[in-house]
Amino acid sequence: MLSRKMAKSRSFLIGILVLSCWTAIANAERMIYKDPKIPINHRIKDLMNRMTLEEKIGQMTQIDRSVASTEVMKKYYIGSVLSGGGSVPAPQASAETWVDMVNDFQKGSLSTRLGIPMIYGIDAVHGNNNVYNATIFPHNIGLGATRDPVLVKKIGAATALEVRATGITYAFAPCIAVCRDPRWGRCYESYSEDPAIVQAMTELVPGLQGDLPANSRKGVPYVGGKEKVLACAKHFVGDGGTTKGINENNTVTNWHRLLNIHMPAYYDTIIKGVSTVMVSYSSWNGVKMHANRELVTGFLKNKLRFRGFVISDWQGLDRITSPPHANYTYSILEGVDAGIDMLMIPYNYTEFIDGLTFLVKNNFIPMSRIDDAVKRILRVKFMMGLFENPLADYSMTKYLGSQEHRELAREAVRRTLVLLKNGGSSDKALIPLSKKSPKILVAGTHADNIGNQCGGWTIQWQGQTGNITVGTTILTAIKNTVDPKTEVVFTENPDAGYVKSNNFSYAIVVVGEPPYSETNGDSLNLTLPDPGPSIITNVCGSVKCVVVLITGRPVVIQPYLDQIDALVAAWLPGTEGQGVADVLFGDYGFSGKLSRTWFKTVDQLPMNVGDQHYDPLFPFGYGLTTEPTKAY
Ligand code: BGC
Ligand code: BGC
After folding, report:
1. Weakly modelled stretches of the chain, pLDDT under 50
2. Residue limits of the Glycoside hydrolase family 3 C-terminal domain (predicted)?
């Protein structure tokens, strides 16, 4: 009796087991999108067929980490998270803390019904620059002066490793703006005023993402494994051409010039497989790029056959109207209709989600537009292997600020330096500087200041003056380089009497611009900020001097040129100040060439190489060279 009952219930249990196994197998068979052996297009199709409108709109939404959480990721099916400038898990957070934070968000995404992983993006525009202890490379204007795409590619590869070290998979770089007016606050993010140099420097893309395999189709998004990250060509298009260099303003130019100056680098990045393109805040002939269907969909997607996804800029939707956010529903309609696939919201995501849902449900935006966006986002996620490897571990934390990367950055610094003057016609060259003088003076606001030598987009969005991260200041580098018997005196802002009465063999003056980014850097006068000019006058009027300029662009220098014995444009070198001393003291030669025209007075601007009335202080391509005194 008992055994019969047992046998009966056993067969019942087995029956249930078989049934549930069968459904599991059937389900697993249908989970095509989870199978890495299936071609990506089938995986996309399978997954899209399963997705609700809510899930699709979630994929299109990117939010800032400050409003993200495991719960938010899960509840709204958020497709992507970013760190805005300075948006960090904690001040001086370690790589492990970053990995933990990114993984927490990811776990929220993975716990959704379909488990679609999110992408985490960050502005790694000169190294993984929001992160404490990362290697900070020179800003793009300096890299343009190297004329060396191979070096830039290496920097891309190092940056990818430092981004992955923090568990992050997406870098909002390169900025391929062609800055046509140095009054623009973002000029330092531009490699050059010459489109050909910007094109050459798109080698950052294969540096970040890896090289397209020989047999792959050109123009498809590509990321070559767990040591590489998604790149982002920005800001499409014409960001560097606005009137008077006013940030986010209007680029007035005809189609021919838009194509010939601002567009060429987009061809290169697309051919090299760039995965994403960011739209510019600026307008072209009065039409906001965020609402420009003709260029975003018509040209970028249809004509150039870009297959990755298009991302908006930060609150780019809001800024379609002025004042911003005046009619958000209208902005969503315009932006999504223009062809933007992922929207960097970054805070008011429920307003965006509700608005877009309304617009789709009421047929203002066709489902086909949503599907195009989601398909592109999913293609990128499948392609980069995110479904197979959604979570980061600590194995790559060792790359953050590694010695090898710092050596690379130091080499880059050496190559970015442009020697603009070295003695007069009658007196002798001052550079290479002597290592064996009894006593030398170092002066200036930028001589012993890591934050100042890194510029904007470092630790904070705007950058920050002071001892903000790990690195070598120029003063420390000078002390490391001179003979141990040489006395190095540092006085930030000495008066002339002091300089005269101290028997210095020569002085090194390091002055420049304070850190800034975006609109805060716009300047109509481009004067060297105080006390820069008085430091130059006090020091150079009293002793032989070399002036090292730490600036994001050419500044007004002509009035001081006669007093200065040697002049070096060092741009924004980043954390590895040793590179500056390497070249000043002749261990290496100067080789950098201006990537921009150096104007005499601001009323000449805009003035670019090839212009009819070209009358520069130092022309595009200028740069004296010196031979290394020590052979390597
Ligand atoms: C900038 C972009 C940047 C984004 C995210 C925007 O203000 O224009 O270059 O990628 O913020 O920080
Ligand atoms: C963010 C930046 C962003 C900027 C745009 C800042 O608050 O930190 O990432 O680029 O806003 O205006």
Report:
1. 1-2, 631-632
2. 417-625
